[in-house]
Specification:
Layout: E1 3-4, E2 10-12, E3 17-20, H1 28-37, E4 45-49, H2 51-61, E5 66-69, E6 76-78, E7 82-87, H3 104-119, E8 125-128, H4 133-138, H5 147-155, E9 161-166, H6 167-171, E10 184-187, H7 194-200, H8 203-219, E11 227-231, H9 246-260, E12 264-269, H10 271-274, H11 277-280, E13 285-288, H12 291-302, E14 306-311, E15 317-319, H13 337-354
Parallel strand pairs: 1-5, 3-4, 3-8, 4-7, 5-7, 8-15, 10-13, 11-12, 11-13
Antiparallel strand pairs: 2-6, 9-10, 9-14, 14-15
EC number: 1.1.1.262
Catalytic activity: 4-(phosphooxy)-L-threonine + NAD(+) = 3-amino-2-oxopropyl phosphate + CO2 + NADH
Subunit structure: Homodimer.
Length: about 350
């Protein structure tokens, strides 16, 4: 049975990783609770969400968790089964599996609390459980397209990069990167309808994305000279212009200019053959042109044990590799593995930045 306490426990002096609990009707809240109950929540972690909702969900699932409400900047309680929580109140009642647009503002507020804590020096990094884009839009946030773009705007930067990595790739050295289960994939475009992707592939966009990817592979992942392979947009990378001219007119000259800056950026390659061990064996990351071109392959290679990293932000943000799984919510059937990977990665990247 979950308990809601305000008593002091042992204290972890490190800045915490702030974990937003995501869509309250989805699996996000219970994933955080599972990690805490199983003793798998990395030390110096704090949830951002509604303590009462978390208490009810833990009780329904039979999870032994002690929830300790606190505020950003407070000493962080620690201990087995203890889950510190920065409180954000739900706007409306919530049942697992049933979306309610009235809670869209609640989800956005959890993100705002985490970002402000990172920027104020009260958190080392943030990790986000999954949200539901549609219900946030239905709740009045009509321009919302996802975590990545919201964080870009909230942090006031011009461009960010979505990159997903399998668990093996998060720990692999260059010598150990075998190009099969080890995979890092960044995206030139993110949450766009496929019909709009070709128009979004410009020299300016590719240049900005590639520079951020190269810089953060160096700064956050400690890769001294990143090797990046780039997918073509069209089948067979355009087949010398017979299947589209984006490669000839935009991608090839842009990559040449990036190489002239001293970056090891290769391609463009046909995406249907690039994602094979033979072609990836000496590559540190792949830059795909659109969402499903890259992420379908990555999720096949490591679904449930991969993490999403937003590059180009003034803070560290990681996330899970899956969605809200409304059909599993409240049943205790979802795996918290990806969230655990994402939290641990956030801590490692924050430590790398601080070094």
């Amino acid at each position: 049975m979950a308990t809601l306490k305000v008593t002091q426990h042992s204290v972890d002096s490190r800045l915490p990783v702030a974990i937003t609990t995501g869509e309250p009707a989805g699996i996000g809240p219970e994933l955080v609770l599972m990690l805490a109950a199983n003793g798998e929540l990395p030390p110096a972690s704090v949830a951002v969400g509604d303590p009462a909702m978390l208490s009810v969900r833990a009780a329904a699932l039979g999870l032994e968790v002690t929830l300790v409400p606190c505020q950003p900047g407070d000493p962080l309680p620690d201990g087995d089964g203890v889950l510190p929580v920065w409180p954000v109140a739900l706007r409306a009642p919530c049942a697992p599996g049933t979306l309610n647009p009235a809670n869209a503002d609640y989800v956005i507020e959890t993100l705002t609390v985490a970002v402000e804590a990172c920027r104020a020096g009260h958190a080392a990094a943030m990790t986000t459980a999954p949200l539901h884009k549609g219900v946030i839009i239905d709740g009045g946030h009509t321009g919302f397209t996802g975590h990545t773009e919201w964080l870009r705007d909230a942090c006031g930067v011009d461009e960010v990069v979505m990159m997903l990595a399998t668990d093996d790739a998060l720990h692999a050295t260059r010598a150990g990167f075998d190009g099969s289960s080890d995979l890092r994939v960044a995206l030139a475009t993110t949450h766009l309808p496929l019909r709009e992707v070709a128009d979004a592939i410009t020299a300016e966009r590719i240049t900005r994305i590639a520079r951020i990817l190269d810089a953060d592979l160096r700064d956050q992942f400690g890769i001294a000279a990143p090797r990046i392979a780039v997918c073509g947009l069209n089948p067979h990378a355009g087949e010398d212009g017979h299947l589209g001219r984006e490669e000839i007119d935009i991608i090839i000259p842009t990559l040449a200019a990036l190489r002239a800056e001293g970056r090891d950026i290769r391609g463009p390659y046909p995406a249907d053959t690039l994602f094979t061990p033979r072609h990836l064996v000496d590559v540190d990351a792949v830059l795909a042109m659109y969402h499903d071109q890259g992420l379908a392959v990555l999720k096949y290679a490591g679904f449930g044990s991969a993490a999403n990293i937003t590059l180009g932000l003034p803070l560290v943000r990681t996330s899970v590799d899956h969605g809200t799984a409304l059909d599993l919510a409240g049943k205790g059937l979802a795996s918290p593995a990806s969230l655990g990977v994402a939290i641990a990665l956030a801590r490692r990247l924050a430590d790398q930045r601080a070094a």
